Amino acid sequence: MPSELDMYSTQRRLFLGAAGAVAATGMAAERVAAAAAAPPPLADPRSLYPKPPFERQSQPWPGLSGKMKPRPDHGERSYKGRGRLAGRKALVTGGDSGIGRAVAIAFAREGADVAISYLPAEQEDADEVQQLIRDAGRKAVLLPGDIRSEAFCTKLVEEAATRLGGLDILVNNAGRQKSAASILDISTDDFDWTYKTNVYAMFWITKAAVPRMPAGASIINTASVNAYDPSENLLDYASTKAAIANFSKGLAKQMAERGIRVNAVAPGPYWTPLQVSGGQTQDKLVTFGRDVPLGRPGQPAEIATVYVELASAEASYVTGQVYGAAGGRGNP
Questions:
Q1: DSSP string spanning 12-27?
Q2: Distance between CA 99 and CA 222 in Å, rounded?
Q3: Identified catalytic residue from 237, 270, 307, 323
Q4: Are the C-beta atoms of residues 303 and 270 closer than 8 Å to each other?
Q5: Residues 55-74 pLDDT 10s
Q6: In whole angstroms, what is the distance from residue 167 CA to residue 88 CA?
Q7: Coil, strand or helix: which one is 14?
Q8: How far apart are CA 201 and CA 100, in angstroms?
Q9: Each residue of 13-49: pLDDT tens digit?
Q10: Strand, helix or coil at 170?
Q11: Across the strands, what pairs with 115?
């Protein structure tokens, strides 16, 4: 009688033989796609994007990418997809601008349908993202509202899943950041606003999403370098980001039994509307990014690939991790 190992080996050979036959039919198309998505040439990362000093500038909260000087790069012209998320269904909070915008663009160009949430004041940026997603041949769903409301968070997930036809990627990215020199300058209302946006909303949205997500799905939360190296002027914001990193690691242990992976990304200084709408003092804005080894802030396009990797099935053994991208300083 054949052993269990012999039977497994036979079944595996049969499976691989069948899979090989199917894969062979698509190899030519894959080679064409790979050639079309050739990686960019080598370039010195220190001089790849603008360096400080930057112009003094201020916008009312929550700020718009289109009014920043210089305008951030979200990969609108540079990101080339490789089909890594073909057929996937993603919800990205804060997907109108900054890192969320870059992630939404990348996901669409990798083959995913994408829903984004944003504040009504950010409609101008959201409309641009909608068109970029459609230009990639994917479905775009716009869901404006305030994630400080539990009712809206629950409705957000329901609407996204219904209009996308499912949900297997969740990116909790929306955040609030307001500079304050001292704890004495942080009002209870401001503290509550930051925690509701950065922590409570993540909890509510994730709780609503989990029952809808299949095995193999991915949850990605945006933490920050401030979780590990808090800026003195971002006391409340930094503490929310530490909570996000911890929440992500604990949730990953819970979700393992469902086959859902959970990770976080901890960006360093990135050139986004957060910085020009109260997230930094004007003096800090002028020199923003100068103190990291690469000597400049990151652009949202430079971190989008980290989210793609964590969302893709290729990262099947990656869960409970915090990925850092901070120009060489302060991350895990």
A1: HHHHHHHHHHHHHHHH
A2: 9
A3: 237
A4: yes
A5: 999 999 899 998 999 999 99
A6: 8
A7: helix
A8: 15
A9: 444 444 444 344 344 344 434 444 577 789 999 999 9
A10: strand
A11: 91, 141
Global pTM reads: 0.88
- Please, are residues 271 and 294 in contact by the beta-carbon 8 Å criterion? no
CA angle 51, 52, 53 (to 5 degrees): 145
3-state secondary structure (DSSP) of residue 167: coil
Q: What is the DSSP letter of 298?
A: B
Task: Report residue 10 as tokens.
Answer: 């036979």
Tokens of 229: 């190296």
Domains within the chain, CATH numbers bracketed: 79-325 (3.40.50.720)
Cα distance between residue 314 and residue 145, in whole Å: 33
Separation CA 314–CA 332 (nearest Å): 22
**237 carries an active-site annotation:** yes
- DSSP code per residue over 43-70: --TTSSS--S--------TT--GGGSSS
Give the pair of three-digit tokens for residue 76. 């609108």
Buried b (16+ CB within 10 A) or exposed e, 32-42: eeeeeeeeeee
Q: What is the DSSP letter of 329?
A: S
Q: What is the C-alpha to C-alpha distance for residues 308 and 325, in angstroms, rounded to an integer?
A: 14
Residue matched to tokens 């859902």: 260
Are 308 and 110 spatial neighbours (Cβ–Cβ below 8 Å)?
yes
> Is the CB of residue 134 less than 8 Å from the CB of residue 159?
no
Write out the two tokens for 244: 């996000």
* Spatial separation of the C-alpha atoms in residues 186 and 196, rounded to whole Å: 15
How far apart, in whole angstroms, are the C-alpha atoms of residue 215 and residue 223? 24
Token pair, residue 303, equals 């971190």
